[in-house]
Design brief:
With 228 residues, this protein is an all-alpha fold. The chain contains eight helices and no strands. It is elongated and about 60 Å long.
Length: 228
């Protein structure tokens, strides 16, 4: 029996829609912080010397990322699990992957929201002969979180979750295709990082960053209309 009433579904729809809106806000703040230089996302150490990249902007970039791309998806993960467990024995594994994606991703964003602004301040106020220490720490945090925790680990978990949703719970051809493409993009990102193919990783990452926003808004509207 589905424990979710229409009111519960609408609340989850609002939160999921808000997830997409906040994720979009995160990207906008990130673009402003990098002076709309897309290459900075591939080489974030440029933030250390970038005049427009204030520590406050970077902190909000990561905090919005934490809620938009991750934490606000928790309700829809629970809701989708209820739908999925009636149609596939793999529901628990798929939903566990979704939970792991959200929690691991949010931990990474929270870590960078604390580490990057502090390192930027220390780097800019440090003596010339100690700047390299803070730059090395910044690069280490980037490799640990962005390349390791996010683009090597969590994207596989996200891919499993979205693939499961696309196969077992999503109705409508267009939304189903969008969900599966999102899953494949995540896996391409993870594969690119694993085999040392940055072009493939960036291709998958860019699709993920866009389609995750579109998907959250789409699902949110669908739930508000009682279509999911």
């Amino acid at each position: 029996m589905n424990p979710y009433t229409q009111k519960h579904q609408q609340i989850i729809g609002i939160l999921t829609l808000l997830s997409g809106i906040i994720a979009l806000g995160s990207m906008i703040v990130g673009l402003v912080a990098t002076n709309y230089d897309f290459e900075t996302f591939s080489s974030p150490e440029q933030l250390l010397d970038m005049a427009g990249a204030t520590p406050v902007l970077i902190k909000w970039f990561m905090l919005l990322d934490m809620f938009g791309y991750y934490l606000l998806l928790l309700p829809v993960i629970c809701y989708a699990h209820r739908r999925m467990e009636t149609v596939t024995p793999w529901a628990s594994l798929i939903s566990a992957s979704g939970f792991a994606y959200v929690i691991i991703g949010a931990i990474g964003a929270a870590a960078l929201a604390s580490a990057w602004p502090a390192l930027m301040v220390n780097y800019r106020t440090a003596a010339a002969d100690t700047k390299d220490i803070y730059k090395a720490a910044f690069l280490f945090s980037n490799d640990l979180v962005v390349k390791g925790i996010w683009n090597t680990l969590e994207v596989w978990l996200a891919g499993v979750w979205w693939l499961g949703l696309g196969m077992f719970t999503v109705n409508g051809r267009a939304l189903k295709i969008t969900t599966i493409v999102l899953a494949i993009a995540c896996m391409l990102d993870g594969l690119g990082e694993a085999i040392g193919a940055p072009g493939l990783a960036d291709f998958g990452l860019n699709i993920y960053l866009l389609f995750a926003i579109v998907w959250a808004m789409w699902i949110g509207f669908a739930m508000l209309r009682g279509k999911y």
